């Protein structure tokens, strides 16, 4: 009886290690990519403008569960409180953990640097997000994130929905919606991604 229990425990540990190793191997490039996208930024506060501009993203993983990422949007969208955006840089660090070969949980801490091209001062803010990333199959990946930041309007909630279609191991297309609640800004991004 003890021998059967020991065999069962060893088998369970080996199976778990194999699943985690397979998850790491299968998802080796989930957090390593470069992306260029076209972003349509839409504000609902009249008379603020809507703007189409370029967005660039990058991410690299290091250690086992940590990744660093950055995003730059070059728009000049008119925002609430008299701000006119002159570039928006976001960078930060995140932690991710695969709970299955196809699904990872993530938490990130970011810094926003919003340049202003009028007399308003440049803005900086912090943002914290949690999310889940899931591969539906070999081609399709979905990510959902929610967070809090304090850019321009004070405490605000952010939601991000992202879908990636992979043509092959390295090349893919992306569609992303970012919604800032109190800032009342939605960004719709269509991009091309290179994963490495």
Automatic annotation (TrEMBL):
Top-level taxon in the UniProt lineage: Bacteria
Keyword set includes Signal: yes
Key words of the record: Signal
Keyword Signal in annotation: yes
Segment forming the signal sequence: 1-23
Protein name: Outer membrane protein beta-barrel domain-containing protein
